[in-house]
Amino acid sequence: MVAAQFYAAKGECNMILDLFSLKGKVAIVTGSNTGLGQGISRAFVEAGAKVAGVSRRPSTETKEMLGDGFHNVIADLGSCEVIPRVLDETLEKFGRIDILVNNAGIIKRQDSIEFSEENWDTVMAVNLKTVFFLSQAAAKQFIKQNSGGKIINIASMLSYQGGIRVPSYTASKSAVRGITMTLSNEWAKYGINVNAIAPGYMATNNTSQLRQDEERSADILARIPAGRWGTPADLEGAAVFLASAASDYVNGFTLAVDGGWLGR
Q1: Tens digits of residue pLDDT in 178-200
Q2: Residue 169 known to be catalytic
Q3: How many CA atoms lie within 13 A of 255 on its CB side?
Q4: How many domains does the chain have?
Q5: Which of 130, 216, 214 is nearest to 166 (CA)?
Q6: Total-model pTM
Q7: 187 contact partners, CB below 8 Å, separation of at least 6
Q8: Is 83 inside any structural domain?
Q9: Owning domain of residue 174
Q10: What pLDDT digit, counting tens, does each position of 2-44 carry?
Q11: Is the residue at 263 inside a domain?
Q12: How far apart are CA 67 and CA 47, in angstroms?
């Protein structure tokens, strides 16, 4: 429902906060056990949604935090074979799907001159191949429901930059930004919005090596105008916005949540 229709249905013009509500919506969030996925899951439940969180290991902490608003789907997204089960289990539990957040991702660090084929293939499988085919499956369900839907891909600062010692991660996240635009072009006619969030340097598992390297961490912090590493909480508002009716005319865009890194 676009904003104008929303206001017409309400018969009022002072309901802007309701546009951000996710009440009655069902979201799939991958990588829900820690970090950004856990934070996004929490934000969605607080905004009124039910969340099917996908993780390789039990999302015990997330489940304890969110209770009945959260259902854990155990699946290894290194293979596309699990995708039908992810959707089937979500539909069995909650009856529909309205939002997909492709957050799960991995990173392998190795000098490019020595970078292995295994490290390349492992990262590309999770960060790109599964992202595309899970998005495809979700879009087919949205079309079947005749409901429209929201897809949010988690990109990266390395969707814009080259990085160091992470060639497959950079390639995958650059491609995530690209397919976000491609899918938005094709699926907008079905009422499906496809956007992405490019987190800045966040204090998560993926950046633990960087944060433990005092020299590298200092270099990174020196470039962030906000003067600190980001946290999962910094991403929550952007995720709710892109999942809600407030963003119905936003499509194909990658929103940087980076403390000002790209503007430096």
Answers
A1: 999 999 999 999 999 999 999 99
A2: yes
A3: 20
A4: 1
A5: 216
A6: 0.93
A7: 139, 194
A8: yes
A9: 3-258
A10: 555 655 555 554 589 999 999 999 999 999 999 999 999 999 9
A11: no
A12: 14
